Amino acid sequence: MTEYADETAHFAQNWQQQLSGAFTRTEDLCAYLQLPPGQLPAALTGPQSFALRVPLSFAASMEKGNPHDPLLRQVLPIADELLAVPGFTTDPVGDLPALAEIGVLHKYHGRVLLINTGTCAINCRYCFRRNFPYADVQLGKQKQQAALAYIAADPSISEVILSGGDPLLLNDTQLAALCRQLSQIETVKRIRIHSRLPIVLPARITDTLLDILANSGKTLVLVVHCNHPNELNPRTAAALHRLKHHGITVFNQAVLLKGVNDNAAVLCQLSEDLFSLGVIPYYLHLLDKVHGAAHFEVGKAEALQLLHALQTALPGYLVPKLVTEQAGAAFKQYVSELG
């Protein structure tokens, strides 16, 4: 795909059609953004093991002609990804040692995470699972039954987190069946879904999906992922309003990223805008040290300065918790001057 002559027609398509038209070549994305290749000398234009993938619904919020756009920086492959940086690994949060069954991560007491799919609607360059062996460990139909049996056999598990990849890329039939099966496990109290789709592909929030979520049989929590206020366009706002209208609790977790949102005014605006749409600012993560993402890292001292600025400018309920995830830890760690 090299151009969109009629964006209105594109956004009138269903979510699967919009997803199939996502940018997958750096040259095409740069052409759409009116960026001559010479302006992006560090961009990798050849095939990559972690390929470019950007829906138009996200790219349309980028500023054309701006090679430093904060949304573009999140998705554009650059040469820095090829650098080997000490301390940056392929499994920075210890996912693989936490595999209890195929597709089941059991890191923390009381909750498990299901790897429902290895696919996302957008490939974020800082993704901590960019090297994850999805082909070996994601759930299929038979493996899903073993995963559900594992959950049912452990009465301490009260929350099941659907993750991936992005679990909202499951089709409606698959998602409804999974929710129905989880609803039959009495000891499970909550289903939590982690998804970037309401932000990057808001067309996914259909009437059918809303009905599935609102009638899951369990308390349902949706955690979206939005890093910058520019990601909140009228289409995402409409999707988030619809989720709120259907009584679905929505939290946001962001990642602190150099050159994207390492600015107090940007983070304040993000919290304000999210809350106005019914979304509670939940976590602000320090970067997970995954190989290929070192150029996004913001140091702890700077992160704490930003946190203090947020605490000064915002009411407490709009200040996300500044956290980091450490492989093997029993819970996510709050970042503080004492730690």
From TrEMBL:
This is L-lysine 2,3-aminomutase. Belongs to the radical SAM superfamily. KamA family. Pfam families: Radical_SAM. Keywords: 4Fe-4S, Iron, Iron-sulfur, Isomerase, Metal-binding, Pyridoxal phosphate, S-adenosyl-L-methionine. [4Fe-4S] cluster binds at residues 120, 124, 127. The keyword Metal-binding applies. The lineage of its organism: Bacteria, Pseudomonadati, Pseudomonadota, Gammaproteobacteria, Methylococcales. The modification N6-(pyridoxal phosphate)lysine is found at residue 332. PANTHER family: L-LYSINE 2,3-AMINOMUTASE, LYSINE 2,3-AMINOMUTASE-RELATED. Residues 106-318 form the Radical SAM core domain. GO terms for molecular function: 4 iron, 4 sulfur cluster binding; isomerase activity; metal ion binding. Its cofactor is pyridoxal 5'-phosphate; [4Fe-4S] cluster. It catalyses: L-lysine = D-beta-lysine. It comes from Methylovulum psychrotolerans.
